[in-house]
Amino acid sequence: MTSDERPAPPGEARDGVRGEARGPGEPVRPPGERGRTTISDRVVARIVAKAAEETAGTGGLDRSVLGVGLPGRRAARTDVRVHGKVVTARVAVSVAYPMPVRDVARQVRAGVRARVEALTGLTVRQVDIDVAELERPDGGRTVS
Hints:
Elements: H1 41-53, E1 58-59, E2 61-65, E3 68-74, E4 77-83, E5 86-96, H2 101-120, E6 123-135
Parallel strand pairs: 5-6
Antiparallel strand pairs: 1-5, 2-3, 4-5
Helix pairs in contact: 1-2
């Protein structure tokens, strides 16, 4: 380094290219050789639940203990499996009555697939939708 050069900030190479810090004369490795990112099933399940609940006409499920209803709602129930770069998901949601259940399920499936693929880069092979409850518009009892 000459007296005119100053040290590069962390994460930036001397040639101005952002990336890994490297020593003198060490080339920047291509992205495929830098490491690996693993996304757990649990993270994908949370993405699936959030995407399902953001669909118009859907919501979480009633909370209960031993069949006794509790105040409040819980998130959509999910079961997600990640095999390599392929995801299969099962989602249980409530649908607001009188929304057409088949149309809502189609929208949930499309929304889940789009959100998971956009955020994780994984391929969604299958999304099964279980309509576990119908919510009444007056806020009364739900039908399970």
